[in-house]
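Limitations
The structure tokens in this dataset are predictions for the assembled complex, not deposited experimental models. Users should treat interface geometry with appropriate caution, especially where small molecules or nucleic acid strands are included. An illustrative entry is reproduced here so readers can see what is and is not provided.
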Amino acid sequence: MTVKKALIPAAGLGTRFLPATKSMPKEMLPIIDTPVIHYVVEEAIASGIEDIIIVTGRGKRAIEDYFDDSPELEMHLAKRHNTELLKLVRDVSSLVDIHYIRQKEPHGLGDAVLRGENHIGDEPFAVLLGDDIIVNDKPCTAQLIEHFEKYGMSTLAVEEIPYEKLSSYGIIKGKPLNESLFTLEDIVEKPAPENAPSNLGAIGRYVFTPEIFDCIKEAGTGVGNEIQLTDGIRLLNNTQTIYACKFKGKRFDTGDRLGYVKSIVDFALENETLREDVLEYLKEILEADENPKQGKTDMIIESLVDKNTTQEYEKLGEE
Ligand code: G1P
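Predicted assembly:
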């Protein structure tokens, strides 16, 4: 059995990016010119997903507008014969069929997943958290689906997490089957680093069989007084062998401020129209940093003065 449906929770308040997220969804923060959620939807489509449900909340209309047609903008671009931008804008709205459902109150990730139960029905489905962008030729979700197709059991993507960040993730205890595959023995939501059962954290890509819904309901409220997906996974593990896969690819945690900055720099360096200028700028910053007595602005002024002075001398020579 394969996986055709995906659920993307996008109801979180985005407090790490306040004040920007006061009036815009965190999922719409751009990596240069493309919102984070665009990459997540693209990953789902490239993994064979045909039906996406996005769980939104109040203040998230911009996500719906982004994936919708935009008649005024399209007319404006058509009048100006800007075919390239017109195509870009139209391509976004024709990506895939997307359904939206609102989570009325932020009650946790488990609750967000439960909002999708009626739409998903009795089918396996993928969950892609909107904070992560994962770059790889074979998308992370496709890797999980491929595994699911072989074994028919719920599977989650894990990555080695630095010690000081363990308390931000669901951390697994796994029995290794090979270098990159584990059967799940336990999963603990956001443990103190000294209590973490390993350094392998769930990074926000999952494939579930529909039994997960009942397990989330049965688990009820957990850490932070929220309905945790992790608690549902723990219960599901009592009746099903769950697999944890160390996925292939580079993950950008855009939900973290430093991770967000890093992803912009990396994407800029991958972009052929920006790469050279960005590299030059980074070099400038590094040189100024190696020369702490001289700030970057001082260096630029100095080089300008040098140039002007040389030009003045050259002029005198000509006269
Ligand atoms: C959620 C999950 C956590 C998982 C993490 C991945 O936490 O509850 O188990 O490891 O996503 O990003 P959140 O980041 O929503 O606090």
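Some entries come with short summary sentences. For this one: The domain at 5-256 is CATH 3.90.550.10 (Spore Coat Polysaccharide Biosynthesis Protein SpsA; Chain A).
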